[in-house]
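Feature request, filed as a ticket because there's no other form

It would be nice if the structure record came with a short human-readable summary line next to the tokens. Right now we just get the raw output. Example of a typical job, pasted below so the devs can see what we mean:
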Amino acid sequence: MKQLYIAGNWKMHKTVAESVALAKDLVAKLGASGQKVMIAPAFTALASVAAVVKGTKIRLGAQNMGPEEQGAHTGEVSVLMLKDLGVSTVILGHSERRHSYKEDDGLINKKVLLALKHGIEPILCVGETLEEREAGRLESVIGTQVREGLKGVDAAVLAKLVIAYEPVWAIGTGKTATPQDADAVHAYIRKVLAGLYGEGPAKSMCIQYGGSVKADNAKELMGMANIDGALVGGASLKAETFVPIVEF
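Raw output as currently delivered:
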């Protein structure tokens, strides 16, 4: 049975104290899990959560980062700052960053390359809107996001990167792509990767699914051939809803 990568994106939720409490609960309940697990609290809680998960199997992630190492970039958090806190993973190109904050493929690619340069694992998020899907543009949109997001990424470091397919219309809406639909898009992403890097790297690439993942749909989603894990949003905010996804 393949090892899956289950990541929790806490988004703009939880105080430092609440984040620490949840992290402690997850460490206690997931210590024996055979899956790869990551949690991404808010920037304000990173240092405190880092102390909780240090030395455990749970990876510490950040939800975003700036495109420069340092400098006059008011309001940004740099890769050097994240690395200093013990962050090992960063979520980049999430649909909320793309659509609410107008981040484009070029900016996201710059962040991907910077994360890889400093040994931080990027989770590159890609996904289409409902309008794009219904207009028959799914493959065009996804293909462009993958190719542009990976521009300049050498095959030698591809294994240090994760892709997360998250249909925009299924994020925070309660709607979920059917396992078959999700798997078909994951298979298409592998086809794009094969064109860029060859069949071997495309087959071994970790591709997560994100979009209203819950305990009651995790087993079927994770059982699909091309789905290697989940990027979980709302259900990652409580141990009682996140743990069952990891241990489905």
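Something like this underneath would help us a lot:
The domain at 5-246 is CATH 3.20.20.70 (TIM Barrel).
The chain has a mean pLDDT of 95.
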